[in-house]
Amino acid sequence: MLADNSVEIDATHQPPGGTVSTMSTAAMNQAERLSTEAMWSAFERGDRRYDGRFVTAVRTTGIFCRPSCTCRKPRRENVQFYASPAHASRAGFRPCKRCRPELRGGPAEADRAMAQAAVAYMRANLENTVYAKDVAAAVAVSPSHFARRFRAADGRTPMRALADLRAERAEALLRDMKAPVLEVGFTAGFQSPSAFVRAFRRRTG
């Protein structure tokens, strides 16, 4: 379909399920404010200024992303643009777990949701040996981006957050069980007495 300015707009396409889906008039009007080349260029360079103006769906994966998503970029011929997450979802696409395009608050809210999921994973694995790369994999974020995004959202490094959670658990164990302090530290997941002492002092002052 061609808009009045002769810029091609992806109004219909063959979604993953095989059913043709058509944009509403309102969605078309919003999409027509940007040419497909402008949308592709914004997505290709990960431009956050375009978040909320459209989403990019990938036919080969069945997933749609924000323009700012840090995912590996697909081939141009496999890309479809939609005016909103709702339109992409109705066309049969799923939201990306990395950039969370369905969240209204933009990348900052996506990072907060990611950090909350990371903390939940840490809390469930306090007794295990946990590395930052393990947490990154659990929340579907590349290790190279995880620490930066987590700290921006949570205010701590991932390993500092893990130590704080273990200190919190150790404090609860000290109240509930009669055991030597170092035994409590190991039960809480600390690998050494010095790490336990540092984290516990930081928590209790």
TrEMBL record:
<dbReference type="GO" id="GO:0008270">
    <property type="term" value="F:zinc ion binding"/>
</dbReference>
<dbReference type="GO" id="GO:0043565">
    <property type="term" value="F:sequence-specific DNA binding"/>
</dbReference>
<dbReference type="GO" id="GO:0003700">
    <property type="term" value="F:DNA-binding transcription factor activity"/>
</dbReference>
<dbReference type="GO" id="GO:0006281">
    <property type="term" value="P:DNA repair"/>
</dbReference>
<keyword id="KW-0238">DNA-binding</keyword>
<dbReference type="InterPro" id="IPR016220">
    <property type="entry name" value="Me-P-triester_DNA_alkyl-Trfase"/>
</dbReference>
<dbReference type="InterPro" id="IPR035451">
    <property type="entry name" value="Ada-like_dom_sf"/>
</dbReference>
<dbReference type="GO" id="GO:0008168">
    <property type="term" value="F:methyltransferase activity"/>
</dbReference>
<keyword id="KW-0489">Methyltransferase</keyword>
<dbReference type="InterPro" id="IPR004026">
    <property type="entry name" value="Ada_DNA_repair_Zn-bd"/>
</dbReference>
<dbReference type="GO" id="GO:0032259">
    <property type="term" value="P:methylation"/>
</dbReference>
<feature type="region of interest" description="Disordered">
    <location>
        <begin position="1"/>
        <end position="20"/>
    </location>
</feature>
<keyword id="KW-0808">Transferase</keyword>
<dbReference type="Pfam" id="PF02805">
    <property type="entry name" value="Ada_Zn_binding"/>
</dbReference>
<keyword id="KW-0805">Transcription regulation</keyword>
<dbReference type="InterPro" id="IPR050204">
    <property type="entry name" value="AraC_XylS_family_regulators"/>
</dbReference>
<dbReference type="InterPro" id="IPR018060">
    <property type="entry name" value="HTH_AraC"/>
</dbReference>
<keyword id="KW-0010">Activator</keyword>
<feature type="domain" description="HTH araC/xylS-type">
    <location>
        <begin position="116"/>
        <end position="205"/>
    </location>
</feature>
<dbReference type="Pfam" id="PF12833">
    <property type="entry name" value="HTH_18"/>
</dbReference>
<protein>
    <submittedName>
        <fullName>Methylphosphotriester-DNA--protein-cysteine methyltransferase family protein</fullName>
    </submittedName>
</protein>
<dbReference type="InterPro" id="IPR009057">
    <property type="entry name" value="Homeodomain-like_sf"/>
</dbReference>
<keyword id="KW-0804">Transcription</keyword>
